[in-house]
Amino acid sequence: MNNFSYLIKQGIKSVWRNRFMSFAGLCVLTVSMLLFGLSALVMIDCEIILSNVSDQNEISVYLDDDADIEKVGEEIKSSPLTAAVRYISPEEGLEQMMENYEEQRTLFENLPYNPVPPTYMVTVNDIDRISEMTATLTSIDGVYRVNAPMDFAKFIRDIRTAFTVIGLVLIAALGTVSVIIIANTTRLSVFARRKEIAIMRAVGATNGFIKTPFFVEGMFIGLLSGVLSWFVTKLIYERIYDMLYSGFQMWSALGINKIVAFDVISWYVLAAYCLLGALLGALGTVISTGKYLKG
């Protein structure tokens, strides 16, 4: 236990003794984690926005004039893919059409009959299954035509796929770069103390005993970079959040007003940063010292 405490103290002290190397590692790891964290938060917010936009999709279900409106409505509501149903009577539909085409209002008013059929507007709870929902609606007795935003659904799917691929590639790249940089920084620190290490090995110190202070040093730098990354992320995210809410209120229809406030996820972000920093710092240390002390 005393040896373990000693090694931990040595690892923390070595951060200050090799402060220039430690500072370089801290800066590099902070920048990498900052990009990593901001990318993850952007992915989360984009997913929220895309989900909000996709929830606004509606399928128009046009009924036959002699259709049993209530029965059709019950069948639509019974589908597990149905999120919301709104009925529009022929009179309401005609009024909406006249409002949309105000310049032709007189023409609509002089029609001998109402051309607008009874209509259900159906919102799907999973836009990826809109084709399945369209087939289900078409098969209902009394429905003569279904108009679904297939192109819109495809666009949302493509955007989600692109964001997912880009985000995963970016996260993997940043994680790899961070580990490599920390490993190289630690390797330089090990090399700078090669005489000290040689003496320790000469008196019988095991590789584990030698590597533990470097391991603690890497974790400690990682934790510091996690706290620093959290603080910078908080400043950037809250600035952008306030800017979106104050200057772009018209974007509320796109779901901007539903993005996550930093206060809600603050502690989760801090914990994730500290764990990630400690992991990357320790991993980089293990890689570098393992190669240097081999044999």
Describe the structure.
Helix 1 crosses helix 2 (19-55). This protein has helices spanning 2-17, 19-55, 69-77, 90-100, 105-109, 130-138, 150-192, 194-202, 207-247, 262-292; strands at residues 59-63, 82-88, 119-124, 143-147. Strands 2-3-1-4 form a 4-stranded antiparallel sheet. It folds into 2 domains: 2-54 and 155-292, no CATH class; 58-148, 2-Layer Sandwich (Alpha-Beta Plaits), CATH 3.30.70. It is an alpha+beta fold. The chain is built from 10 helices and 4 strands, in the order ααβαβααβαβαααα. 72% of the residues lie in helices and 8% in strands.
Brief account:
The chain has helices at about 1-15, 20-55, 70-75, 90-100, 105-110, 130-140, 150-190, 195-200, 205-245, 260-290, and strands spanning about 60-65, 80-90, 120-125, 145. The protein has about 300 residues and is an alpha+beta fold.
